[in-house]
Amino acid sequence: MTIMSVPTAVRPQKRLDQDIVGVRVMGTPRSGTNLAKHLVERYLKVPVVFDQGFWKHGIFPALMNGRDLLYGELPIVVVSKDPVSQILSWYRLARNDTIFRPNRSLGSFLSKPFEVRQDFTQPGRMEYRFRTPSDYWNQFYFAMDALRRSGVPVHFVCYENLVSSPALSLHMISHFLGLSPPFDSRSVVEMPRQALGASNDIDRNESSTIDQTLFDPARAELASALARIGWRNAATILRGIDDDVLSATGRAGFREKCRRAAGPKAMLRSLIGFW
């Protein structure tokens, strides 16, 4: 699947102000979009839009009005996990039949075509197919960076930073949105005690947004993911990821970071298998 880059100068970057009516949050599944929504709405008091106009997990569509690119007129916050932690999370999720096709074998999961759908248990849902899970991660964030380079207001947030430094992340988001005054980076931000369940703009009032499992900040730790997935599998993932996309998401030098973070457990996991 190929994504065409949008022109780099469609229009100048829009200036945002404190009268902003909302913000769109996008990211791949299990990237932290629900956490970002929770924090932005609670602490910045800005409504968050997920699935109105575009699916938050879908490759951003090139909607055109003549030569002008349309993006829904809302600023966009893009959340990402590093590709190793992210794809490990997808593999865990792929053992059911909702958003990903089930796959029991990690090796097959990493190397075979990867299908993403709004809900595999329901008919009439949008569906995508990529060469591999890495291809999906790469294509999604490449498209969001292309949108940013076109002049659309797009701001990238690393999930690991959102977890480790939530006040600073909110400060940067508030600055991006043009809120005055911006959120104080010295503020105390209370993280949710329980994991946030999947949510959207349609079923918001029909289902609880809070899961019963405890919120685990360790899921943002690269070393923990490497110990579970193994260095060999991590290297397979990284072969499908472009350096410019890593940089766009705020992860310049990520390959070297992986090598430094890969401890004995990651090396041993490569020898004995995944579980």
Summarize this entry quickly.
38% of the residues lie in helices and 14% in strands.
Q: Give the strand line-up of the largest sheet.
A: 2-1-5-8
How many discrete structural domains?
1
- Uncertain runs: 1-15, 204-211
Structural class: alpha/beta
Strand content: 5-15%
Would you report the number of β strands?
A: 10
Query: Helical stretch count?
Result: 11
Give the overall shape: globular
What is the rounded Rg? 18 Å
Sheet having the most strands:
4 strands, parallel
Q: Would you identify the CATH architecture?
A: 3-Layer(aba) Sandwich
CATH class: Alpha Beta
Task: Write the H/E string, N to C.
Answer: EHEEEEHHEEHEHHEEHHHHH
Rounded average pLDDT: 82
Please bin the fraction of helical residues.
25-40%
Measured between the Cα atoms of the first and last residue, the distance is: 31 Å
From the 3D structure, determine the CATH topology: Rossmann fold
General description of the model:
With 275 residues, the protein is an alpha/beta fold. It starts with 22 loop residues before the first strand and ends with a helix. 38% of the residues lie in helices and 14% in strands. The chain is globular. It has a single domain, classed as Rossmann fold (3-Layer(aba) Sandwich). The protein has helices at residues 33-44, 83-93, 106-111, 133-149, 159-164, 166-177, 222-229, 231-239, 243-248, 254-261, 264-272; strands at 23-27, 48-49, 63-65, 68-70, 76-80, 114-117, 127-130, 154-158, 194-196, 210-214. The model is unreliable at 1-15 and 204-211 (pLDDT under 50). The strands form 4 sheets. Strands 2-1-5-8 form a 4-stranded parallel β-sheet, with helices on both faces.
